[in-house]
Amino acid sequence: MKNIKLNDHVEIEIVGSGTNTYGKEGNEFKGALRGDTEEIDWAIDNGYRHFDSAQLYNNEEVVGDGLAKSSVPREEFFITTKLNTMEGYHGADWAHAEIEKSLEKLQTDYFDTFLIHFPWDDNDEIIEAWSILEDYYDRGVFKSIGVSNFEKEHLDLILEHGKVKPVVNQIKSNVGNWNDELIDYNKKNDIATIAWGPLGGLEGDAEKVLDEIGGKYGKTPAQVVLRYQIERDVIVIPKSHNKDRQAQSLDIFDFELTEEDRKRINAL
Ligand SMILES: NC(=O)c1ccc[n+]([C@@H]2O[C@H](COP(=O)([O-])OP(=O)(O)OC[C@H]3O[C@@H](n4cnc5c(N)ncnc54)[C@H](OP(=O)(O)O)[C@@H]3O)[C@@H](O)[C@H]2O)c1
């Protein structure tokens, strides 16, 4: 495993586990909770220690139960969750209450990173929300704070008005939508990028090219794409409802892409 050092010196494992459909009926985002923690149990068994959760996923308790009942101590896990701002911001009291609920559901007294999930169209409110995260950061409840789905202008807002710089910007980056410009902007500002949906777009011609590249190393298209991202220091958080595929997504540290491979992948 490789670690990335964030701008506040906290270290994060470069491959984490997505969780947005874990523990749900039919593996559906909107599915009801099944009442078990199977995918989290497999992930821990496979060696994942970094978990990406969010209030929006409505399954923080699945992640919390899985981690709590494992034999791995809390401090060996890296837990991220996110304030659900999909429908905007509903005031400081709301934010505090949601954060407290997350701590309870994830059965912890701190988060390794806590993110604002989406920007919305009220700059004063975004600055207020960020100052709430800063307060939890100052008190050590959040070891690091960051954002998700932020565009350049939203990052600029925080960089200009915040006291603490975001450590990460979690954004979509996958075949067909690498998002290179924003990744470069993150990097220029010493903000790490986490790629969500990292295995999207693995079909058709792209899959053929990746299969050809992977064939040289005995790796699958998914492993090639994840390797591509980590070679450029982009953190990935794949999820799978299959234990073997979860393991394959971690098995990407024993080969190296050539410059020619990287060019072909970037063109997909
Ligand atoms: N910040 C945001 O706004 C945001 C938005 C979306 C997602 N996320 C986060 O990002 C995480 C990952 O994104 P995602 O859930 O969209 O999906 P993803 O990780 O890109 O995976 C897509 C599909 O790829 C398959 N897969 C997984 N590992 C594989 C492997 N090694 N080989 C072949 N296929 C494989 C899985 O199907 P099988 O189950 O059949 O293996 C999965 O459904 C989420 O779980 C969530 O934590 C964040």
UniProtKB/TrEMBL annotation:
All copies of domain NADP-dependent oxidoreductase, residue ranges: 16-267
The keyword Ligase appears for this protein: no
Gene3D superfamilies linked to this entry: NADP-dependent oxidoreductase domain
Keywords: NADP, Oxidoreductase
SUPFAM superfamilies linked to this entry: NAD(P)-linked oxidoreductase
Any one GO MF annotation of this record: oxidoreductase activity, acting on the CH-OH group of donors, NAD or NADP as acceptor
Tree of life domain: Bacteria
Residues that coordinate or bind substrate: H117
Residues of the active site: Y57 (proton donor)
Pfam family name, one: Aldo_ket_red
Site (Lowers pKa of active site Tyr): K82
Entry's family note: Belongs to the aldo/keto reductase family.
Protein name: Aldo/keto reductase
Lineage, highest ranks first: Bacteria, Bacillati, Bacillota, Bacilli, Bacillales
